[in-house]
Amino acid sequence: HTPIERSPSLVCAMSRIIGAKRGDKAKLLALTRTSSVGHLPSGGEPALKVTVLEVYGMCCQSEVSLVQKKLGILPGVQSVRVNLMLRQVAVTHEPNEGLPERLVRTLNWALLDAHILTDGGGGGTLLRRGRPTGLGLLLAGCTLLFAVSFGTWGRVARGGEAGPWYEDPFSYFALACAALGAPLLLARAAASLVYEGRLNMFALMLVAVAGALGLRQLWEGAAIVFFFVLSEAVQKWCVHHTARQAGALGGLLPAEVSVPGGPDKPIDAVVLGEELLLRPGGRVPVDGVVLSGLSSVDEAVITGEAAPVRKGPGDVVTAGTTNQTGVLTV
């Protein structure tokens, strides 16, 4: 096992921070935001650290590969673990003071909108901490320009002649809409080409926009850009909504766990391979395998299935579920 796999910071605390209340989150962040793992050499400095990043622009598997490639090649980085659903990246690295900021800059060059996880993180897609995000401003601008550009069709419907594009005032709004969103398409296409060596869907849309503008079909080019920006916003909202729902599961975990033959201990202190005691009516604190005992476990919060599931030696229990009838050792 690597040090990160033994670290309670990622095994336990990371599963709790997403659902912690605001007052408790600062305590958890002190453990997870830049956590020390591994042994302490003679100088007293930790051998490795874990920096957790929120990557708002990470919405699909292709962007996961991009994150892993960009961060994995940086000097001092030992491993990169990505949680796409929560839009979080845990980077294990050497204790270099400037490396966390470099991680953020590296991802932001690819327009992935990364930040070091801090208290009050997990902001929205269009608004974050009461302020509009870059995507929110872009969507608002493209929506306004694209809506005004519809005037060109009203002029034609009223019997107006379809003269040169520059004689139609509404064409300039369509051109402005395309110009506003095209740089995002270009940046996404260039990032994929440079870091992954392939053309992605953004490159195809960029070709379509260029073709429409080249044929003087300005409204069609603006439509491609507008619907691209709109789809980006909808996709990120869906991912953000899923992350919030998953984060609510972290609040279901107990603050303390029971140890066979010993006093209760904080969940943050649980280490990989440790035996825990689950009493009837209590929440399962961590994922584990049943060693002894028989019980029924309510897994509705995870699976949606109302019927309790019988658990015995060798069965897997999931954090956040409820032990109902018996005592289990996991």
Explain what this protein looks like in three dimensions.
With 330 residues, the protein is an alpha+beta fold. It is 45% helix and 16% strand. It is built from eleven helices and 16 strands. It has helices spanning 3-6, 8-17, 22-32, 61-72, 99-108, 134-149, 151-157, 169-195, 201-214, 218-250, 300-303; strands spanning 34-37, 48-55, 77-83, 88-93, 114-116, 127-128, 131-132, 256-257, 265-266, 277-278, 288-289, 295-298, 309-311, 316-317, 322-323, 328-329. Strands 1, 2, 3, 4 and 5 form a five-stranded antiparallel beta sheet that branches. A hairpin with a 7-residue loop joins β8 and β9. α2 (8-17) packs antiparallel against α3 (22-32), α8 crosses α10 and α9 (201-214) packs antiparallel against α10. The longest helix is centred in the last third of the chain and has 33 residues, at 218-250. The protein is elongated. The two termini are 20 Å apart. The model is unreliable at 1-44 (pLDDT under 50).
